[in-house]
Write a structure and sequence with these properties.
5 helices; 3 strands; alpha+beta
């Protein structure tokens, strides 16, 4: 009995992303630790794990001590300079 193979058309998608290592470069480990320990953002053992840049800001904003730190302000400044902030992703797997 021959099995008939069905052809399915798929569209290739693309998105813009920046590397977390570039975005967090030179900033204290506390910022990265806060993202890494967030229960709302999980990653590990993947090729790419993408979150919107705004989601990163929102997650860090919930950390009381970080919200007022000059380092958090610098990270927000970097994110605000990204093109189309809400549609640019941050790859946490690098």
């Amino acid at each position: 009995m021959k099995t008939k193979t069905k052809t399915v058309k798929v569209r290739i998608q693309s998105c813009k992303f920046v590397l977390a290592s570039d975005l967090f470069k030179g900033l204290p480990e506390e910022l990265w630790d806060a993202i890494s320990s967030s229960s709302n953002i999980t990653f590990g053992d993947a090729n790419r794990t993408l979150f919107t840049a705004q989601r990163i800001v929102d997650e860090l904003s919930s950390e009381a001590g970080l919200f007022i730190s000059p380092d958090f302000a610098e990270l927000k400044k970097r994110i605000n300079r990204l093109p189309q902030k809400l549609r640019t992703y941050v790859d946490l797997e690098n």
